[in-house]
Amino acid sequence: MLLEVRNLSVSYGNVSAVSDVSVHVEEGSIAAVLGANGAGKTSLLNAIMGVTRAQGVVRFAGQVISGWSSARRVSAGIALVPEGRRILLSLTIEENLLMGAYQRRDREITGDLTKMYDLFPNLARRRNYLGSVLSGGEQQMLAIGRALMARPRLLLMDEPSLGLSPLFVREVFNLVRSLNSAGLAILLVEQNTRMALQAARRGYVLKLGRLALESDTEELMKSDDLTKAYLGDDVTVKHRLHA
Predict the structure, then answer these.
(1) pLDDT cut 90: percent of the chain above it
(2) What Å distances lie between residue 206 and 102, 133, 158, 194, CA to CA?
(3) Which positions are tagged coiled coil (predicted)?
(4) Phi, psi of 153 (to 5 degrees)
């Protein structure tokens, strides 16, 4: 198992954002975390990344990393594509990409930069343009490329299709599948339930910070409880479907 999260909880003051959630991601697989706004999805990813303080156990590649800084987690092989992209608008495309490799000191950074331009030819043609001139879809591709420059084994993706045109949504999910086919494990937070479940092998549904459902995605897509979890019906505690 590449990533194991056990009984993770996140609070902001007296407000509980995530309560006793456990998820796992197998090496080379895609897992999806679903749920309505405010379900705790982003807090879960930020806790795994070490951006947000949390209680519980996070284990990566056999090591307990719960007390590690986010920088150390990046060095270990975890990278985050944050919600809203958060590229640096005052830097060029190339400078943004190089920010993803800021902890690396190896000689292969230049080669990896070339790989990013091969993967994202639109960015290659505009490498000296500022991030501020890019469309939302182009900024999302840049954010993904920046994360890939860290050479992760696990990529955390927070709402990668948010605010994008249908064309770019398809491109994002095609990219997710392509990266996974190359061996990259992905933990995907998404509100586009259909496309997320089609891409992932395993799904988790959060409701009000708690794990309401978990199963292989084929079972989740057949389950009436998936709709209930979104609509606020009586799926309030974890329910493991037949998988």
Answers:
(1) 79
(2) 33, 36, 14, 16
(3) none
(4) -95, -25
d(CA 135, CA 146): 16
CB within 8 Å of 199: residues ≥ 6 apart: 30, 32, 173, 176, 177, 180, 188
Rg (CA), the chain: 18
Q: Return the percent helix, strand and coil in the chain, to nearest 5.
A: 40, 25, 35
The domains located in the chain, with CATH, are 3-240 (3.40.50.300)
Query: Judging by beta carbons within 10 Å of its beta carbon (0-12, 13-18, 19+), is residue 39 exposed, middle or buried?
Result: buried
Residue type, 7: N
The Cα-based distances of 119 to 5, 22, 28 in angstroms read 31, 33, 19
Name the nearest CA neighbour of 217 among 234, 238, 239, 242: 242
Confidence of residue 163 (pLDDT cuts 50, 70, 90): confident
Residue 203, CA distances (Å) to 63, 93, 99, 143, 213 in order: 24, 33, 31, 24, 8
Are the C-beta atoms of 77 and 147 separated by less than 8 Å? no
pLDDT-derived band at 59 (thresholds 50, 70, 90) equals: very high
Instruction: Give start and end residues of each alpha helix (H) in the chain.
Output: 41-49, 70-76, 93-99, 109-119, 121-125, 136-148, 166-181, 193-199, 217-222, 224-231
